[in-house]
Design brief:
Mean pLDDT: 81
Strand content: 25-35%
Distance between the termini: 81 Å
Low-confidence stretches: 1-10, 67-88, 95-109
Number of strands: 18
CATH architecture of the largest domain: Sandwich
Number of helices: 8
Helix content: 25-40%
Radius of gyration: 25 Å
CATH topology of the largest domain: Jelly Rolls
Largest sheet: 13 strands, mixed
Order of helices and strands: HHHHEEEEEEEEEEEEEHEHEHEHEE
CATH class of the largest domain: Mainly Beta
Length: 326
């Protein structure tokens, strides 16, 4: 058997298992132990979780088309019901039909690169209805074909609004990390040290693309934020308001709320060639609040001088901020 055949067989086997789980879950004797077993199977690999969600989507489509979870109504003999094996078969068939239909549609050319300069902001609209907003100093590559929807975020920050397609998952690769869309709006920010993934709507599967492992994988829901470095992954929660603040760059502004001057300056420096330098610890520890245009360094500097009472010196390529010397 060839490698391709083995892969195809494995994928089909996973789909069949997912459909079987859907059928078992629909039975009246489904128990807490069954749910625990399902959770364990889903956690084994991202492929299991994705196959399950695809099967679930196909199952729901079958419900709408044929009312399969209930006895057939007027046209069927009284007492007739669709069995669980028939439901499983319908679920698998629905997935197959969706795949066959999608295969005949050419959506986009292969492998395009999109970039934004420092201070730039660009929106990409794809033919499937998905949309990506690129923030400052970002490099992103896209492969959109009949079989694949893959984005590589080489550096920078982007906000994704994905048109969900259970047959063709939308995948974002950032370094050795992978984000698989499950019907979602989410933010990905990558620099030389860390990767941040924040989910605003829907769900994503987050894992290590090179060596998937439970400790490096997570199903993220709205408000979840995954922070990954070279060897660690941590998950935290953010409020809707906090996420909105983090996404304020989409409106061309930065919003600070009790933000240290050091952090505010670092954020401004992402958008501007003229850099803010906070020269001492006293100035760095001061906090600032307000809404500022991303590229208006002069406005920010005036507020720092006039409101915080700090010394501001414009040296051309740098604006140096420090506490007043006696």
């Amino acid at each position: 058997m060839s490698v391709d055949s083995k892969i195809e067989f494995s994928a089909k086997d996973t789909r069949a298992q997912a459909a079987e789980w859907i059928g078992r879950r629909d039975r009246s004797d489904w128990s807490a132990a069954d749910q625990a077993a399902l959770d364990a199977w889903l956690a084994q690999t991202p492929a299991n979780a994705i196959a399950f969600l695809r099967a679930e989507a196909a199952w729901n489509r079958a419900d709408l088309l044929g009312d399969l979870r209930h006895p057939a109504r007027d046209a069927a003999p009284r007492g007739f019901a669709i069995s669980a094996p028939m439901k499983i078969a319908a679920s698998i068939a629905a997935i197959a039909m969706l795949g066959a239909a999608a295969a005949g549609i050419l959506l986009w050319p292969r492998d395009r690169t999109y970039t934004t300069p420092v201070g730039g902001h660009e929106t990409i609209n794809f033919a499937d209805g998905s949309r990506i907003e690129l923030n400052t100093d970002t490099v992103l590559r896209a492969r959109m074909t009949t079989d694949q929807r893959i984005i590589w975020l080489d550096k920078g920050e982007a906000f994704f609004q994905v048109k969900h397609d259970s047959v063709h998952p939308f995948v974002v690769v950032a370094g050795n990390r992978r984000i698989t869309d499950l019907g979602t709006k989410f933010l990905v920010r990558r620099d030389s040290v860390k990767l941040e993934v924040a989910v605003a709507q829907g769900r994503v599967w987050f894992d290590d693309a090179a060596k998937p492992a439970p400790s490096q994988s997570a199903l993220l829901s709205p408000g979840d934020v995954a922070m990954a470095t070279a060897g660690t992954v941590s998950i935290s929660r953010k409020s809707t308001q906090s996420l909105a603040t983090e996404l304020s760059w989409r409106q061309g502004v930065l919003v600070f709320k009790h933000t240290t001057l050091a952090d505010a300056a670092a954020e401004f420096n992402r958008y501007n060639h003229q850099k803010l330098v906070v020269a001492d610890a006293t100035a760095a520890g001061r906090t600032i609040g307000g809404t500022f245009p991303t590229t208006d360094v002069e406005l920010f500097s005036r507020v720092v001088r006039d409101v915080l009472g700090l010394r501001v010196q414009n040296n051309g390529n740098e604006i140096v901020i420090s506490a007043h010397a006696d």
